[in-house]
Amino acid sequence: MLIFTRIAELRSVLLLAALCGAQGCVHPGSLDPTQWMGSNKTLGLKGVEGTDAIIVCLAVVERPVNDPYIHSALWEMVDEQVIPFECKVRLAENGIRSGVLGGQPPQAFLDILGSDRSCINPRQIQTRFGQPVVATIGSTRDEISYRLKSANENQDWHQAKATCQWEVIVVPGEPGRLKVTLCPLVKHGESQMSPRAVQDKSGILTWQLQSQQQIERHVTGQFEVETRPGEFVLVGAAGENKETIGNAWFRQPDPRGSVQRMLVIRTARKSADSTIVNQQTEGPRPLALLAQETY
After folding, report:
1. What would the pLDDT profile of 99-155 be if each residue is shown by its tens digit?
2. pLDDT of residue 255
3. Cβ atoms of residues 18 and 105 within 8 Å
4. Which residues pair with 236 in a beta bridge?
């Protein structure tokens, strides 16, 4: 089961987590979340429990196309060497770049995460290791065209009523790390009613009709990266080739002017002790503290 929090709260928590990393948050008593969140309430994290329970924070940063910060300056501080060379070359050929931003991010990045205009639809999701979470990039397009380049062939795609997404799957990595696997998806075409097995809380399976579009999963653009506590995974567009899947996913014409987007991901194990209190308010431990714990 996935549990989604309110957008306003999530933007605060994402920013809180980043700021906590920048300030060197160490233990529950060292942080008063109200100084960043603007209220005396901590964000409720009850829901998925167990040793495989995790928290995934997702946000899409949106700026004018070729914005000098997310287009170039920010990437100078991102470690792109965490991706193997051969994989990085394949991603670059398809207009995709990714890397890890450390737990003490620059202030300009924090300002973007805290902006209602630039940090689009932030979500905090409780799930389990190995269960996919989907991040949607931009709005549904009437039409989309792009080319996928692999070692064997180039394949052109043309799709209608298309929604660009990234599938995110988190599993344990090397000691002290989590492994994040990302793969581009696209939902497209007319919605069709199809039966689907749904399991209720008691474990009983029933068949329900659900409206679904076709889904293409482009493994050519799939890659994985390992993160330490507090780090961010960034995914964005590389190069100026307008035919690539990276350009199609992250750059989009808009009535307000063309925009460029970047996916921001932060993950953490969910603490087994989710009822530790801060100095003022009883409630679950803030994500900022969870993100600083040792996995």
Report:
1. 999 978 899 999 999 998 899 889 999 999 999 999 999 989 999 999 999 888 899
2. 64
3. yes
4. 97
Burial of 16 (0-12, 13-18, 19+ CB in 10 A): buried
Which amino acid is located at 52 in the chain? D
Unique residue bearing structure tokens 């994290």: 45
Cβ pair 248, 145 in contact under 8 A: yes
Question: What's the sign of the alpha-carbon dihedral 7, 132, 193, 191?
Answer: positive
Task: State the amino acid at position 212 in one-letter form.
Answer: Q
Among residues 258, 26, 231, the alpha carbon closest in space to that of 250 is found at 258
Write the DSSP symbol of residue 39: S
Residue with tokens 């997702």: 58
Which residue is listed with tokens 């987007």?
A: 261
Dist CA 56 CA 192 (whole Å): 30
Position 11 confidence tier, pLDDT thresholds 50, 70, 90: low
Please name which of 108, 49, 56, 76 lies closest in space to residue 284, comparing C-alpha atoms: 49
Q: What is the pLDDT of residue 35?
A: 27
Which pLDDT band, with edges at 50, 70 and 90, does 217 fall under?
Answer: very high
Residue partners of 90: CB distance under 8 A and separation at least 6: 149, 150, 151, 220
